[in-house]
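Q: What structure does this chain adopt?
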Amino acid sequence: MEHPATGRRPNWGLHLLSGLNLAGLVAVWGLEVLVGERHWLTTLLAYAPQHPFVAPTLGLLVWALVRRSWLPVAINTSASILFAFALMGATLPLGARSRAAGERVRIMTLNIHHASEGVDRVAALVRELQPEIACFQETNPHWVWHDPIPELQRRLPEWHIVRHGELATLSRLPILSHRVHPMPGKYRRELLESVVQVGEEQLTVLNVHFNTAARPRALLRNPRSGLTYLRNSAEVRSAQMEALLKVAERRPHHLVIAGDFNTPPRGVLYRRITTRFSDAFRMTGLGFGHTFRANMPLLRIDYLFLGEGLSSRRCFVPPERVSDHRAVVADLVF
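A:
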């Protein structure tokens, strides 16, 4: 008897539902991490906002508290922690601050969405955050939006800019060289590599934008073509990751990979890159780090990955909205 003083009996239905809910969350997490992009259904599961998965847990937790049934309280508290850290990707950078004393540099990445909110707002954000290096995606003209780079150059005259297609890398420090690497896919994605002089060190920066994994509206309008796109995009994105890693692994020392990966912090593709490079936000970020959509961020799909010889002192997502994405900023040390 749980409550001999009142004669209250255990609610075995509550116990059972709590256990099944916890097992279900573990199963969802396992499918997302281990299967991920290998199947269209688990791709949808992993790439969708995870917030709905907590609803049963919260309901069961309230029920358990009202019933003062402490075993279900413990089970659902554990489920809440699993949800926050495994499914939502929450981070607590306990003891993560670097003690290195080498060169320091602040870098940011942002998909500016063709500066659809205005070039002035993008330039103002750069001046406010004061990075030494900024990696932008979707900097090309598109429909009603003109090419934003000439305007950015006028507003940020002290910055060096290298640009190819939709990618642009800006630096207040000298850019020693840059080159372009082709990426698979019919949208002609490419990888922009720049070498930046940071004090006595040289930093290689890879600026990238992966294909979108899923198009929910297209899936709803035409499920058959939507599923075909899901399958094809999984193959293309896997090939893009392979191409990126092939370039990156030839330059593992003092390397930053920055960009819009259209990939959540779970799944096969994320695991492939984080087995070799460190996720700056996971190292030193606080909270969820959601970057998309900017007006109601539910997903973390923009990243700064670090190679050997670099560590992060701090990584954060500023609240300012100058695009449909939010920026990711990291203070790095050699």
